[in-house]
Amino acid sequence: MRRMIFVPILIMVAILAIAGGVGYWLLNNYQFYNTDDAQVNGHILNVSSPQAGQLKTMTAKLGDKVTAGEVLGTITVAPTVAGVKPATIDITSPIDGTVVQANAIEGQSVTPGASLAQVADMAHLNVMAYIDESAINDVKVNQDVDVTIDAFSGTAYKGHVQNIVSATAGSFSLLPSSDNASGNFTKVAQRIPVVISLDSNGSNNIVPGMSAEVKIHLH
């Protein structure tokens, strides 16, 4: 008798557990959009020579904090008139930031526009997340976002949706994603890039290129 009563109770508990799990999943998907298809981005600019010449000095080193206009090196420009001494021109940082690349070698020849170093604005990093097109209508500018950086998984960062790019990620590909020359088209789910600004970078050394996970608060 007890066994006959116990079995229906177990079945009822199992049904309630399943219903609770399904309900939680539905509620979570209604309230949030989660994706790990995201990456830290930053404003990175090249440090280049304004003229052709020879790199005389290069003081910028990887990881250096620099300010806009700060001299990072000098180049020697050969004179165009005989008897005139070579001119020295300063190479300066285009922005406040951190040197993230410095591969130039003193003594090498340089050309106008050639990259000698790169400086990133670490104070204004953002996260680029790729959202399924089926969910993009629920994503709005200024929605709150919880961000986790893979390298610092124990730390949660707060942010908000800054911009929704008006094109799919596939639109930026150098190669075509499909060939419909024959008149056939294969439908492929697309992703929309969404820019998420971080309210604070915290004390961790977040750098562009790091992988991230985001949870967008939809409702």
UniProtKB/TrEMBL annotation:
Q: Which Pfam families match?
A: Beta-barrel_AAEA, BSH_YhbJ
Gene3D superfamilies per the record?
2.40.30.170, 2.40.50.100
Q: Which BP terms in the Gene Ontology apply to this protein? A: transmembrane transport
- Signal sequence, start to end: none
**Compartments, as annotated in UniProt:** Membrane
Give the stretches traversing the membrane. 7-27
User: What are the p-hydroxybenzoic acid efflux pump subunit AaeA-like beta-barrel domain coordinates in residue numbering?
Assistant: 126-217
Q: Which SUPFAM superfamilies match?
A: Single hybrid motif (SSF51230)
Please give the family membership noted in the entry.
Answer: Belongs to the membrane fusion protein (MFP) (TC 8.A.1) family.
Q: What is this protein called?
A: Multidrug efflux protein
> In which organism is this protein found?
Dictyobacter vulcani
